[in-house]
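Quick review question:
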């Protein structure tokens, strides 16, 4: 009879977490392609067979890490967008509130965020699948935020979409390029103090974007 592992036991859970944490550390350091199952198991101090048992191999582990990031990220995004749209906040304040929540989530999951954002720049089957699912949801939530907060943007073709892209880049850039920020500008994106200062810049962008949208001309009616 095949042995069954009880995932509720402390030892089994801690071994699974050790595998996950070791994989994330090695994936960040040398990349997923350069990391072997044996290296992950050795770093975690477990039998290599456990990697396959828990995750179905390295590819399954990679998929689990990326899915876990997006599930948490989108859960935070949906809750924040829903809450801010139901509030009496100004358009700029809504954008800042959502940005704060999402930046905080990425700081709390710094190495996972860094790894996932880097992986999403690759052209792989997994990335295409994630884009077709998780990133389409992200697009929906962010467009909802922009359309309801800045309805004037609907007056110009693709204005809302380009605003979403700018907003998304502001939120994710520190975690896509942390090494650049650390080595060149001596910023520490994982530190709470960074979020506080960075949100000031996002506030300036949000207020400027809101002001610009209010000045957008109303399209002239088309004569029959």
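Suggested answer, residue by residue:
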């Amino acid at each position: 009879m095949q042995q069954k592992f009880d995932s509720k036991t402390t030892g089994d859970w801690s071994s699974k977490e050790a595998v996950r944490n070791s994989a994330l550390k090695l994936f960040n350091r040398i990349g997923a392609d350069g990391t072997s199952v044996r290296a992950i198991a050795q770093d975690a101090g477990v039998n290599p067979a456990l990697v396959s048992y828990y995750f179905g191999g390295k590819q399954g582990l990679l998929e689990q890490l990326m899915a876990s990031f997006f599930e948490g990220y989108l859960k935070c995004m949906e809750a924040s967008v829903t809450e801010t749209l139901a509030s009496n906040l100004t358009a700029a304040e809504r954008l800042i509130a959502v940005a704060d929540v999402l930046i905080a989530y990425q700081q709390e999951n710094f190495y996972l965020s860094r790894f996932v954002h880097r992986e999403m720049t690759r052209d792989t089957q997994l990335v295409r699948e994630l884009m077709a699912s998780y990133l389409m949801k992200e697009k929906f939530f962010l467009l909802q935020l922009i359309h309801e907060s800045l309805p004037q943007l609907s007056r110009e073709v693709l204005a809302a979409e380009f605003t979403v892209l700018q907003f998304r880049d502001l939120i994710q850039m520190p975690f896509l390029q942390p090494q650049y920020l650390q080595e060149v500008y001596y910023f520490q994106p994982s530190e709470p103090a960074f979020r506080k200062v960075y949100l000031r810049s996002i506030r300036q962008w949000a207020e400027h974007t809101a002001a610009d949208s209010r000045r957008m001309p109303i399209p002239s009616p088309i004569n029959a």
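Why it works: Residues 1-11 have pLDDT under 50 and may be disordered. The domain at 63-214 is CATH 1.10.357.10 (Tetracycline Repressor; domain 2).
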